[in-house]
């Protein structure tokens, strides 16, 4: 089963997790990380790293963030590059999480990412999809090395 780390500004991550648990019961391998005003990005990264390790049982982890490019998204992006089967999704909301919850058990992390983005919900994207639009920067002298 895919682990979920829901990470949003203020109390929104915990609110979504509470609503999901009210609907589905206790959610194994799910953690909420709230990004409060004044919280350092270092502390946020530590909290997200802990959540990643608490939710990953080997099938992968999906970071579900509220805003693309904001601190929770950036922290998730950095962590995802260090771990296999990690995906970062931005623009999430409760209705989307509720709809996708049953698919945690059947999809791979890449399939989950693609299914979510293919729903074409306004504002929803993934780190992977963003990277396809904007390929990594390459120095010209690296291109011409032989």
Automatic annotation (TrEMBL):
Main localisation: cytoplasm
GO CC, alphabetical: cytoplasm; membrane
Gene Ontology BP term (one): phosphoenolpyruvate-dependent sugar phosphotransferase system
Molecular-function GO term, any one: kinase activity
Classification via SUPFAM superfamilies: PTS system fructose IIA component-like
Keyword Metal-binding tagged: no
The PTS EIIA type-4 domain, residue ranges: 1-124
InterPro entries according to UniProt: Bacterial_PTS_sugar_comp (IPR051471), PTS_EIIA_man-typ (IPR004701), PTS_EIIA_man-typ_sf (IPR036662), PTS_IIA_man (IPR033887)
Gene3D superfamilies: Phosphotransferase system, mannose-type IIA component
Thylakoid recorded as keyword: no
Source species of the chain: Enterobacter wuhouensis
Protein name per UniProt: PTS sugar transporter subunit IIA
Pfam (any one): EIIA-man
Location of this chain's protein in the cell: Cytoplasm
Keywords for this protein: Cytoplasm, Kinase, Phosphotransferase system, Sugar transport, Transferase, Transport
